[in-house]
Amino acid sequence: MTHNNKKLKILLTNDDGIQAEGLRILAETAVKFGEVTVVAPVRQCSGMSQKLTIATPMALRKINDYPVKNVAAYSLDGTPVDCTKVAILRLLPEKPDIILSGINFGYNAGYDCANSGTVGAVYEAMTLGVPGIAFSNGVPNGAVFSGKGSDYSVVKRYLEEIITELMNTEIESTAFWNVNFPGCPLEEYKGILRGRGVGHIRPYKENLLPGTLEDGTPTYTLKDCLIDKSEAPEGSDIHALLNNYISIGKIHNAMML
User: Fold this and answer.
1) Do residues 104 and 13 lie in contact, with contact meaning Cβ atoms separated by under 8 Å?
2) Is the preceding omega at residue 98 within 30 degrees of 0, hence cis?
3) For 67-87, what is the mean pLDDT?
4) CB-based contacts of 20: which residues, under 8 Å, 6+ apart?
5) pLDDT for residue 1 is more than 60
6) Alpha helices in 41-175 (DSSP H)
7) Residue 248, SS3?
8) Tell me: the pLDDT tens digits for 28-50?
9) What does the alpha-carbon distance between residue 46 and residue 204 come to, in Å, rounded to a whole number?
10) 217-222: long-range pairs with CB below 8 Å, 24+
11) By three-state DSSP, how is residue 187 classified?
């Protein structure tokens, strides 16, 4: 994938839903590179990975009041992977040059990449012959499921620069880029670390809180709580992020190797 000042056809999606702030910020930058079409889930779809909607009609609706000019935007009553499929196989007259997914609310690093709908959408596009980049941004402890509290100052300063860099960098057809921003204030940001491997750990602790329904039935609720940076493997994406660096790395599709 090489940009070289060519006006690109760009597909955008996410897993936080069509109204997500991160998607809007990504769209505002993407329109500088070409013709942008957004196809995103109508509702929150975090953690859906490669989930497909099977044998159920999915409504595709044009969003006429999308807040970014010169962007064709649609919501789909489906998952991030559904959005990728519908856009590439049905909606668009030809394959896009690239898919950009995100900007996710919370890290997609380490083993959490396997659960990510943001990552899953790009993974699906790769199997359809479309290269892509997944973007995520860190949030404070306890904020992943609240949808509030993200600092996009580092994103807004470096997103265009990173898209330009990666669009002009060759990558294997069996891999795609995974970019995570630290989510810290710009004055605390330390730099960009490239070639970050996927850490062999989750950035969030396995934090299942027990509870009980009125009839005595036990419940378990997943809550986000970041690990300490001392627990992150050195050289990994997680280590970079918890030390306030942007992490750039690749995710490979082992089935395509």
Assistant:
1) no
2) no
3) 97
4) 14, 40, 105
5) no
6) 80-86, 117-127, 153-167
7) strand
8) 999 999 999 999 999 999 999 99
9) 14
10) 222/145
11) helix
Q: Tell me, what amino acid is at 134?
A: A
CB atoms within 10 A of CB 152: 16
Choose among 130, 121, 101: nearest CA to 1.
130
DSSP bridge partners of 10 = 36, 98
Within 8 A by CB and 6+ apart from 230, the residues are none
Taking the whole predicted model, whether its pTM rises above 0.90 is answered as yes
Query: Could you tell me how far CA 70 lies from the centroid of its own chain?
Result: 22
The token pair that represents 239 in the structure block = 């280590």
- Report phi then psi at 236, rounded to 5: -90, 165
Hey, is 151 helix, strand or coil?
coil
Edge to edge, what strands does the sheet with 175-181 contain?
Answer: 60-62, 71-76, 34-41, 8-13, 98-105, 132-137, 175-181, 245-252, 191-194
Average model confidence (pLDDT) across the chain: 93
* CA–CA gap between residue 79 and residue 43 (Å, rounded): 9
Q: How far apart are the first and last CA of the chain?
A: 19
Nearest to 137 by CA among 105, 173, 112: 105
Map tokens 């069509």 to a residue.
Answer: 18
For the chain, percent of residues with pLDDT exceeding 90: 86
Q: How far is 105 from 228, CA to CA, in rounded Å?
A: 19
SS3 88: helix
Q: Are 129 and 40 in contact (CB under 8 A)?
A: no
Q: What is the pLDDT of residues 126-178, one digit of tens each?
A: 999 999 999 999 987 767 766 677 899 999 999 999 999 999 999 999 999 99
